[in-house]
Amino acid sequence: xxxxxxxxxxxxxxxxxxxxxxxxxxxxxxxxxxxxxxxxxxxxxxxxxxxxxxxxxxxxxxxxxxxxxxxxxxxxxxxxxxxxxxxxxxxxxxxxxxxxxxxxxxxxxxxxxxxxxxxxxxxxxxxxxxxxxxxxxxxxxxxxxxxxxxxxxxxxxxxxxxxxxxxxxxxxxxxxxxxxxxxxxxxxxxxxxxxxxxxxxxxxxxxxxxxxxxxxxxxxxxxxxxxxxxxxxxxxxxxxxxxxxxxxxxxxxxxxxxxxxxxxxxxxxxxxxxxxxxxxxxxxxxxxxxxxxxxxxxxxxxxxxxxxxxxxxxxxxxxxxxxxxxxxxxxxxxxxxxxxxxxxxxxxxxxxxxxxxxxxxxxxxxxxxxxxxxxxxxxxxxxxxxxxxxxxxxxxxxxxxxxxxxxxxxxxxxxxxxxxxxxxxxxxxxxxxxxxxxxxxxxxxxxxxxxxxxxxxxxxxxxxxxxxxxxxxxxxxxxxxxxxxxxxxxxxxxxxxxxxxxxxxxxxxxxxxxxxxxxxxxxxxxxxxxxxxxxxxxxxxxxxxxxxxxxxxxxxxxxxxxxxxxxxxxxxxxxxxxxxxxxxxxxxxxxxxxxxxxxxxxxxxxxxxxxxxxxxxxxxxxxxxxxxxxxxxxxxxxxxxxxxxxxxxxxxxxxxxxxxxxxxxxxxxxxxxxxxxxxxxxxxxxxxxxxxxxxxxxxxxxxxxxxxxxxxxxxxxxxxxxxxxxxxxxxxxxxxxxxxxxxxxxxxxxxxxxxxxxxxxxxxxxxxxxxxxxxxxxxxxxxxxxxxxxxxxxxxxxxxxxxxxxxxxxxxxxxxxxxxxxxxxxxxxxxxxxxxxxxxxxxxxxxxxxxxxxxxxxxxxxxxxxxxxxxxxxxxxxxxxxxxxxxxxxxxxxxxxxxxxxxxxxxxx
Length: 909
Description:
The chain has 28 helices and 30 strands. The strands form eight sheets. The chain has an eight-stranded mixed sheet with strand order 6-5-9-3-2-12-15-14, with no helix packed on it. Helix 2 packs across helix 3, helix 15 runs parallel beside helix 17 (about 700-710) and helix 26 (about 840-850) runs parallel beside helix 28 (about 875-905). It is globular, with a radius of gyration of 28 Å. The two termini are about 50 Å apart. It is of the alpha+beta class. Helix content is about 40%, strand content about 25%.
């Protein structure tokens, strides 16, 4: 479940004339009121899916129906030989076929058993191959044959290799990652999501290898003493980016679930560490089969652990790939709380088997249909199977991140125009994932759990094995609900921005009323000019907003009101605390007037944790937006109890850490750090170093966060104890609980001497467990000694580090290591070498993201002048976002730090 029973309120439509009548109801004095503020000017929803009108770059005159692909990888020379036969439908007579291919050579291309051979023209910039035949192809069915040679990459796009350590030396395996547009790096294809087809793969691999694809193996034949040919069953109709091939010295742990073989595939010797994931995958499969109303349609589902290549997971149909440490659980090296992250990612990727794989967005402008829904379902599943984790509450930071991004002028609508694959890459962001997730949760609450589920079932059934747009989803939900959905939903998906509800109470005698008004919440540097794009900060925005508002005390079932524009409601007795966004389900900020804020601050303790978190988070957001003075936020966190919920304290820790980073090299930093230590240390002292909980509880997670934060804030006692415990760990590894290892090694890293730095690297090099290797490499990268930081940066040019963490290591030197200029000089000096190793994503995204470590005009100007970061339209999008992030940080630093410093000094008198 996603909400407590008292928060799952039915919403009904009422006429505007109801407003006065409802306000006069005496029952409203005690009730929680759910309001939909509806203003004019909302966006108009897009049309339903049509193949002919869906965006894309390829012509639609020819479409693929079935690919028969033979691949022969050369693991030593890193080349991929292949041949494919593609059944195509020519929809209108043409002599030209245009499909995608990049960084490959094409041999002969022929049609219909060599009836005609094509001239081949490759366009590297467009990533296309144009096949021109001597004669026009008639409309109807044809068979295309192409021979080709592609690359096996060192970076995680297309088909890539991973070298990884084992007890028997280094090994090499292959895997693939194709989203959004990298199937074209493996075989020529119509590499856009709307061009769905079936795929039959045959791969020739070393005989000691296990090969894993989307479908089960149907045949294995030895074709040479050390080679075998592996043939897989044809896939259902699917998009090309969902194709998968993984091969290596692997093993597989399996279970049966309702006729489906579920497997965890790992490198040799590690399959037992996949048992937690396997057990939960079996449970999730049954849960999703029931929820979506359509059973998982493939005969097998493999979860594939890859010890490199890319850092997350990819929802390939029938063969989900995961960065190894995100899937495997080892009680010898993992904290018990690591199960939470494993389950959440597993639930996300398995939800994609329906949302994304079975039903696919027509083009990347509707990417949120994949990612927003999978992000929502991962929490819904966690709440169902592990309610003790309180995942909605504890993952509130995801919504906060989205709202921070969405308050900027460089934000974008959930549904946004996407011109090419570089812009598609840029769309995998906090708006698509986290705002999408928050909107879906809000809509589910608005419609009710069962009605919403029925609408999802209609959507899945209607579009299975096909494509869809957001409009198709709204239509299904409206059909199930029997009431409007599009107007509310489209106002959040088709326009940019975060609503702001201003709320203030006033008294008339002993009774109180609350005025509510809608505005737009904006975070922008002081004096900044409005942008001219969709992200214009100052332009008016209106939304249809479900708002839950009422007194904090227990209330009868909600009254319903649909009001036009601003409204005023009865709000209990004079002076009573009345809160908007009860339950923190809504996607909007709330700014209270002086009376309301004072009453709520006095009533902080009686609030539910979700309401307390919402109030504190909005208070910090108002500071960032310049709508509240920074000392008001510090005064608020001064009244938060040391026994408050982890989610509340995580928000506080994040804001104090943010201020500490902004204060780097500034005179205000010592006082700020002293205040932060004084505020957080009593909380840590309550928990202590050694807890008595289950090991998978919020105190365990909070303890680790506090050790990490207090060490970075310069708490010498914490730093010394971390070093002492690490020394004990080197003598007896069992002496340091797994739950403390990340934080302790991080603090050893930031204060590292040459000896302890070398020890961290030795531990990383000795381990064959990916999670341990990352722990020690990142700890070493945190060293604040410049000589050690240079040594870490030099490692990123070698083959020692997993390629997936190179960018993270450089960023850690800049952030935790507090050496941003050193790291930036290194990136500039070695950009070509790094980009060659890391691939196009390094050019398009890394530099822009890295530069957000700075908060000054000089570095912003450097980013503007750094041409490689702006070589593509997606790169230019990322650069614009980074420039605004830098400007906002500079503005906050200038506004907040002197004010906070003055308040702290006055506070300490």
